[in-house]
Amino acid sequence: MRVALLMGLLVACGPKLDPLHPLKAELAQARRAGPTAAPPHVRATLATSAINELIQLAVANPKKPIIVPVMLGTSAVVRPTLQPPAIALQESPDCDCPRVHVELDGQVDVELAGLMGRRTLADDLEFEAVATGSSRISLDRDEERNTVIALAPVESDPWDVSITIAEPQGMINDELIAAQVSGPLAEQLKRSIPLASLPPTTPVQPARIEIEVAADPTAAVWLQGRPSEPAPAVEVDEGWAVATTEDGALAITRAAFAGLEQPGRWKIEPIGLQIDDDSWTVEVRVHKVARRSKYRDYRLSGPIIIGETIPVTVNSTERIAKGGWGISLVSLFVDGRVRKQAASASLEIPAIVQRNINGTPIRFRVLRIDSPGSDVFIYGRLEPGEPDAE
Q1: Considering only CA atoms, which of 104, 105, 102, 106 is closest in space to residue 151?
Q2: Is 145 exposed, middle or buried (0-12, 13-18, 19+ CB in 10 A)?
Q3: What does the alpha-carbon distance between residue 97 and residue 211 come to, in Å, rounded to a whole number?
Q4: Contact (CB, 8 A) for 160 and 101
Q5: Which residues pair with 109 in a beta bridge?
Q6: pTM of the model
Q7: What does the domain layout of the chain look like in residue ranges?
Q8: Contact in structure between 300 and 272 (CB atoms under 8 Å)
Q9: 21-33 vs 246-258: helix axis angle to the nearest 10?
Q10: Do 190 and 144 touch, CB atoms closer than 8 A?
């Protein structure tokens, strides 16, 4: 009797439990284990035709010439017109990464601009370029703790660049091209090229990114979440695509919630996720912060509508389970509060992301979401962006 009384006092007066401790422990364990043995959470594919489109928009844009300093007060103004490149990837013998072979040809106009005015050096000069080397994706932190995603060289297989012209024009010949263009470009490719930067406030950070050898360049992405089912392979004829699974999306969502600030009395934990072509369903566990486990599980669902944004609205809320929570007026209040909050929740996910590439704004637009079985595919296209809209 005394033992039972003592246990009751300990439970009644003891510290309140953190109901999200198992979720945080799950995330911490995944981070300690690392992504080496786990499958990627996401695969992102950019069609070769989309790469050609990027080059046409960002590099071969006559309104955005390439300025190359030549000497003090003098620069070469280069306006290229590029043909679609031939890109081939194969397994690199030097690293667990691809060896890339790129063939590119086109025409170029070159002007010399300086204090004495402008002088045409080449007009519609035809050229062929071949570049070969191994590359990998690196993840680093800058001084502001941002995660910098970069295309990094492989020291044992550096890039080799060769550019030849159809015929010399004036002072421009193969020797000058090798000294002033091919050589400096190869040196530049010995340094990492930043691709994106994620602020430290990003809810889920990447843990590892690899370029996979495929018909179209594909990035396999491991995120700071628990291991999940392998992301499926994806093929695209044009534009871009991102592939994951419902379990992978749930792992990412749980990792995001583990780092969010939540109210002191209540904690929300995602425990289930289902995505169809035109709707979504998520199961959440609402914990009450107490000295013993108390929770209620709810199933929320809503439509998937893709426009300029993807609005997330809840049109159905259903309680499906409970634990440690008896029938009381407080329980009825909680059910009503959850339904009210879900019905009034308003969240918009951007369907368009704009980035500047070589000074040219490029939009990545979401077009549709397909979900055959437990796989989830997001498809989109590239399009010209709006200046200063980033």
Answers
A1: 102
A2: exposed
A3: 6
A4: no
A5: 79
A6: 0.83
A7: 17-44+216-352, 48-197
A8: no
A9: 110
A10: no
What DSSP letter does each residue of 164-191 carry, written as one string?
EESS-BTTB-HHHHIIIIIHHHHHHTTS
List per-block mean pLDDT (blocks of 10 residues) for the chain, which spans 390 residues.
Answer: 46 64 87 85 91 76 72 81 85 88 90 81 90 93 92 92 88 84 86 89 92 87 92 91 96 88 84 93 90 88 94 91 68 78 84 82 93 95 78
Phi-psi sector, 198: left (phi>0), alpha (psi -120 to 50), beta: beta
Sequence-ordered strand ranges (E) for 115-177: 117-141, 147-153, 160-165
Q: Give the pairing of strands 218-223 and 42-46.
A: antiparallel
Residue 180: phi and psi, rounded to 5, are -100, -20
**CA-based Rg of the chain, rounded to a whole angstrom?**
27
Alpha helices, DSSP H, located in the chain: 2-13, 21-33, 48-58, 174-177, 183-188, 246-258, 329-344
Q: Which residue pairs, CB below 8 angstroms and at least 24 apart, start in 246-250?
A: 246/273, 246/274, 246/275, 246/371, 246/374, 246/375, 246/376, 247/273, 247/374, 248/41, 248/42, 248/376, 249/273, 249/275, 249/376
In this structure, the strands spanning 206-212 and 193-198 are unpaired
Surface-to-core class of residue 195, CB atoms within 10 Å of its CB (0-12 exposed, 13-18 middle, 19+ buried): middle
The confidence score (pLDDT) of residue 388 equals 66
Distance (Å, whole) CA 166 – CA 7:
90
Q: What are phi and psi of 178, to 5 degrees?
A: -65, -40
34 phi/psi in degrees, rounded to 5: 80, 165
Residue 306, phi then psi, degrees to nearest 5 = -110, 120
Judge whether 243 and 234 are in contact, CB under 8 Å: yes
